[in-house]
Amino acid sequence: MADADPKRFEVSGKTLFLDTFMTRFIKIGGIGIIAAVFGIFIFIVLQVLPLFDSAHVRKSGFFEVDVSVKPVLMGADEWGELPFVLYEDGNIRLFSVDKKPVSEDGRLVVKPARSEQIAGLDGKITVARYFAKNNVLLLGTENGTVHVLPLSYSMSFEEGTRVIGCSIGKPQDYAGETRNRIGYVDFYETGSERMIVFAQGNKVDAVRYQKKKTLFGSAKEKFERAGFAEHIFEADVTAVFVTGLNDSLVVTDSNGSFYFVKIEDGTMNIVQRLRPFESEEDKRICSANLLLGNISVVLTSYTGKNHIYALSRDEKAGELLYSKIHEMRDFPGGASLYDYSHRNRAFVLAGKERVSLRYGTTESSRWYEVLERPPLLIFLGLKYDSLWLLDDAGRFSLYSIDDPHPESGFAAFFGKIHYEGMSEPAYIWQSTGAEASFEPKLSMIPLLFGSVKGTLYAMIFALPIALLSAVYTSQFLHPSLKRIVKPTMEIMASLPSVVLGFIGAIWVAPAIEHRIPSIIACIVIGTATCMLFGWMWTFMPKSVRARIRPGYEFIVVIPLVAVACIMAWHLGVFAEGIFIDAYNHATGKDVSDFRAWWSEFSGIPFEQRNSLVVGFLMGFAVIPLIFTIAEDALTNVPSYLTSASLALGASRWQTAWRIIMPTASPGVFSAFMIGLGRAVGETMIVVMCTGNTPTMNWNIFDGMRTLSANIAVELPEAPVHSTLYRSLFLGALLLFMLTFIVNTVAEVTRKRLREKYKTV
Fold first, then answer.
1. The predicted structure's pLDDT at residue 240
2. Cβ 422 vs Cβ 311: under 8 Å
């Protein structure tokens, strides 16, 4: 030994280099993974933050116009490059505005105004409305005539510069029953039909105009009086609107009353009368106007209250009636001026040197400013990107609006919203609709609920099977069989979720749809058979138990459970025929159908693809993960603890339950949390095995929509950087945070359990 070479104990330089390199490589890799996770988190947060930003409105410039004659209306083309002002004498002036170049004092570059006198007016204009969607001017005069003037915009290029032109078409005139002053006018058009209503004192007149094509292609015009109301209103009418239903009106009068009126067979009948500001000192209505869609009505009072009323079904009356759905922030002094967006539920109020931009659905005030001079007219740009304002000094000001996500906000995502047409506030996800007037409903609560619901049913199915299987495999199964069972379970974990989802949607869901009682019977009777056999096995003589080799007891259990399940399957069919009795609306007869009975019993339809199918298939995906990790934790419990317990007289089951399980509880809990995280983030099984309806109920025979499934379904249709696009990122952020919280709780709990049950 004295002659031994000491260098043979030295580690080679190559090994040291490789060891140092791998140590640093692993450290850098770990740091890189953490950095990547944080980078993803920061990217998602940056996509979400604009959703909670307010509107950015700034004054772009101004120019002066003549206000020596009273201006009654202002408007602009779609591009906002040709605004106009209409005066009470019928003169309309158009201004070609270059919105970009301005002088040092903010004055816009404006080409000389083009003036045009509207022909055929029979007096001064008392009321004027501009319907930008239809390019129609609607004018009412002091002598009781309503004039409908079509506008036609054109675009051309002169020397590379875009030039917007406008021409006024031939007017159509409608004379009232009397020659009294027109107090208010409204217009609604659907296809070839047009409805015009106007008020004269406390009288309301409605005219319907139809344009139909004959068989030879020529147009045939038809005018008819749709309805007339006289002396049915308490006082002079201050506003009248045709609703989007096209057969009903909304009317307000000078006493502060609000009427919902239906037109039937040429007569107007008051369906509802209410006082929106009954409890206030000043009960009068300062202004009343419609929102996009012509259903919701925006009301303000002289004391500054701002309410929104909309139609919803009244269960007692059994019909659609108006009720208050939103109470906005007060607008001091009331609003004498109003305009609404043609792209969303935003609207602008102005009056008494104040202006405010608001969004009806979420009750949010997007922008508020105190003006230097009282405003005379306002106009909200058709693209919701500009606001035109004319004050009493003749200053025509242009404000640019940057508000890409007015429908978002904390209230929209996490609060109950009273949407138009609904009887009460609710959490709803419905991102798209068939009409431009659709209110986006972007609540995250149904998606969170769906994620919890799907995870809960999956874990109810998976956790008992996985944990009991892990306990049996690690403590009772023969080692030779364990070498087969565990790799098989690990292979199951590699099955793609899209395959499981496909099997669930195509085979499992239709197969169990008509056999729900049999499924329930199999679960109950199969479980009871296992428990009964285990209890009876302990009372059997040792001579009988000795015939079964330890670890092979399942050879007896499996046939018994199989026979019990076969009997339960047929028993379920028999029980359904005897005890289930439901009314079939299609045939008008009573049938023994669990699906019809469940819908009748719970009031919720039975869906073929439901939470039960998701629980089975997602549980099947989760079981291998929980089983593998839990089995490793149970197997790695020190053998001396098992030997000591058995030596003291404890049975194998007592040892497993009281010694093995507590000691392995940190690993078992980790298995549970990893399975939980897998279920929370599952996408394809949920997408394919449910109806993807974002409902909020615990009904196991109804579907759901989870956060992950919602992203998969909606993202292909979401325009980049749109509100929907960013809302899906918000869903991803919530899923990220939910997973982070679950993993954090799991790690903290695991450490505490490990400290409590440590064996060294």
1. 93
2. no
| Residues 625, 578: Cα–Cα separation, whole Å | 41
- N-term to C-term CA, the chain: 38
Alpha helices in 246-400 (DSSP H): none
The residues, ordered by sequence, that sit 6+ positions from 343 with a Cβ below 8 Å of its Cβ are 292, 382, 383, 384, 436
State how far the Cα of 692 lies from the Cα of 683, in Å rounded to an integer.
11
Q: Strand 267-274 vs strand 258-264: parallel, antiparallel, or unpaired?
A: antiparallel
pLDDT tens per residue across span 27-58: 999 999 999 989 999 999 999 999 999 999 99
Residue 154 and residue 313: Cα distance in Å, rounded?
A: 44
349 contacts 331 by C-beta, under 8 angstroms: yes
Residue found under tokens 């004055």? 107
State the residue for tokens 């023994």: 592
- Return d(Cα 462, Cα 445) in angstroms, integer: 25
- What would the pLDDT profile of 587-628 be if each residue is shown by its tens digit? 667 777 888 888 888 888 888 888 899 988 998 889 999 999
Residue (of 496, 346, 354) closest to 409 by Cα position: 346
**Cα-to-chain-centroid distance, residue 546:** 63
Question: How does residue 725 score in pLDDT terms, banded at 50, 70 and 90?
Answer: very high
Mean predicted lDDT score pLDDT of the chain: 86
| Amino acid at position 28, single letter | I
DSSP β-bridge partners for residue 399: 59, 387
Long-range Cβ contact pairs of 64-67 (< 8 A, separation 24 or more): 64/394, 64/395, 64/396, 65/93, 65/95, 65/113, 65/390, 65/394, 65/396, 66/93, 66/394, 67/376, 67/390, 67/392, 67/393, 67/394
- Smallest Cα–Cα separation from 327: which of 311, 354, 313, 309? 309
Backbone angles phi, psi at 405, to 5 degrees: -135, 60
Sheet holding 237-242, edge to edge: 184-190, 193-200, 203-213, 219-230, 267-274, 258-264, 248-253, 237-242
Q: In whole angstroms, how far apart are CA 393 and each of 60, 74, 108, 338, 370?
A: 18, 15, 17, 19, 16
- C-beta separation of 252 from 234 below 8 A: no
Strands (E) in 329-404, as ranges, are: 337-340, 346-351, 354-359, 364-370, 375-380, 386-391, 395-402
> What is the spatial distance between Cα 729 and Cα 49, in angstroms, rounded to a whole number?
10
For residues 750 and 671, give the distance between their C-alpha atoms in angstroms, rounded to a whole number: 10
Q: Global pTM?
A: 0.87
Contact status, residue 354 vs residue 331, Cβ threshold 8 Å: yes
What angle (nearest 5°) sits at the alpha carbon of residue 395, between those of residues 392 and 399?
Answer: 115
DSSP 8-state class, residue 716 = G
- 558 CA to centre of own chain: 48
Q: Is-contact 384 403, C-beta < 8 A? A: yes
On the 0-12 / 13-18 / 19+ scale of CB atoms within 10 A, 417 is buried
Long-range CB contacts for residues 452-457, cutoff 8 Å, separation at least 24: 453/611, 453/698, 453/704, 454/611, 454/614, 454/615, 454/618, 454/679, 454/682, 454/686, 454/690, 454/704, 454/706, 455/676, 455/679, 455/680, 457/611, 457/612, 457/614, 457/615, 457/618, 457/619, 457/700
- Strands of 84-87's sheet, edge to edge? 71-75, 84-87, 91-94, 114-117
The runs of H, that is alpha helices, within 308-444 are 410-414
Which has the closest alpha carbon to 389: 141, 45, 83? 83
For 338, list phi and psi in degrees, rounded to 5: -155, 145
Query: 């408007």: which residue's tokens?
Result: 75
Listing DSSP states for 107-147 in one string gives BEEEPPPEEEEPTT--S-EEEEEEETTTTEEEEEETTSEEE
What residues form DSSP beta bridges with 93? 85, 115
**Which of helix, strand or coil describes residue 402?**
strand
Instruction: Provide the 3-class DSSP secondary structure of residue 501.
Output: helix
User: Does position 195 have pLDDT exceeding 80, yes or no?
Assistant: yes
Local structure of 582: helix, strand or coil: strand
Region of residue 347 (phi > 0: left; psi between -120 and 50: alpha; otherwise: beta): beta
Task: Answer yes or no: are the C-beta atoms of 631 and 470 closer than 8 Å.
Answer: yes
Identify whether the C-beta of residue 684 lies closer than 8 Å to the C-beta of residue 713: no
